[in-house]
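Task: sequence design from structure.
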């Protein structure tokens, strides 16, 4: 009898931390503005697809609303969390909205102070 060997699946389970976070944006005028601002960050990769824009960051990155205002040529305060949520379709990692920016975190421990995540072990 011949023994068959199956190849390892590229879709196998891998529970190691990726240290990545990100989101997808609609491929719209506002989505393009956000992507233009974020592609200037060293730890962020922006990939434009036909119907969406994928944004992936390593570790932590911020969407600073004033930077998007400037990119759009609008007065400060035009872009906010509501505009961001409207342009975004999904995200991974921890997302924290503040008055002046949205912060993306790859690891929940890094967002502990914002999300009331207790890092103390339970005895």
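Answer:
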């Amino acid at each position: 009898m011949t023994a068959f060997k199956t190849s390892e699946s590229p879709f196998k389970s891998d529970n190691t931390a990726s240290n990545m976070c990100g989101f997808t944006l609609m491929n719209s005028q506002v989505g393009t503005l956000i992507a233009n601002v974020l592609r200037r960050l060293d730890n962020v990769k922006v990939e434009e697809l036909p119907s969406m824009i994928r944004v992936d960051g390593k570790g932590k990155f911020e969407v600073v609303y004033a930077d998007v205002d400037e990119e759009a040529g609008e007065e400060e305060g035009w872009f906010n969390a509501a505009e961001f949520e409207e342009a975004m379709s999904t995200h991974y990692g921890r997302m924290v909205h503040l008055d002046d920016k949205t912060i993306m975190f790859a690891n929940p421990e890094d967002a502990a102070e914002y999300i009331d995540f207790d890092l103390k072990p339970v005895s």
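The chain has a mean pLDDT of 91.
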